[in-house]
Amino acid sequence: MTDRDLDDLLALAARQPPLPGPDLIDRVLQDALALQAVLPQGPAPLGVAAARPGPLARLSGLFGGWPVLAGVCSTLILGLAVGYLSPATADYLTGGGSAEALDLFPSTEFLTTEG
Q1: What secondary structure letter does DSSP report for 106?
Q2: 61 Cβ neighbours under 8 A, 6+ residues apart
Q3: Which candidate in 15, 57, 65, 104 could, as Cys together with 53 as Cys, close a disulfide (CB 3.0–4.6 Å)?
C-alpha cells in the first residue's frame, strides 16, 4: 500500500462518516426520557433565592476543598508550635525534666552595638 492509496482511503472515510445504528439511538433516547422524568420541571419559583455558600465554604474553595484546608491549618498549628515553644517547654511536654534549655543567643549585646 502506497501513501497515495492511504490518502485515497482516508479521503473516502472522511466523505462517508459512520452513522449510529438504530439500536444505539433507541437506547440513548430511552435514557434521556428516563432522566427527564426525574428532573424537576419548569423554572425555580421567583421568591426563592439560590443558597449562597458561607465564608468557610468560600475559603475552602480558594484552597481547593476541605481536605486541603485541613492540611494547611494543621501545618499552621505545627509551625506555630515549633516556632514559639522553647526547648524547655518541649522537654516538659515530652516528660523529661533534667535537660537544660538551649541558649541560642548567649549574649544579645551584638544587637545593640554599632559597627
Answers
A1: S
A2: 53
A3: 57
Q: Helix or strand or coil: residue 47? A: coil
Distance CA 59, CA 7 (A): 55
Cβ-proximal residues to 93 (8 Å cutoff; 6+ apart), any chain: 85
Q: Residue by residue, what is the 3-state secondary structure of 54-108?
A: CHHHHHHHHHCCHHHHHHHHHHHHHHHHHHHCCHHHHHHHHCCCCCCCCCCCCCC
The span from the CA of 74 to the CA of 83, in Å, is: 14
What are the tens digits of pLDDT across the range 49-59?
Answer: 667 888 988 88
* C-alpha grid cell, residue 101: 534549655
Query: What secondary structure letter does DSSP report for 103?
Result: -
- Cell triple for residue 82? 515549633
Rounded to 5 degrees, what are φ and ψ at 92? -65, -40
Q: In the numeric block, which cell numbers belong to residue 31? A: 435514557
Q: Give the Cβ contact number of residue 115 at 10 Å.
A: 2
pTM beyond cutoff 0.85: no
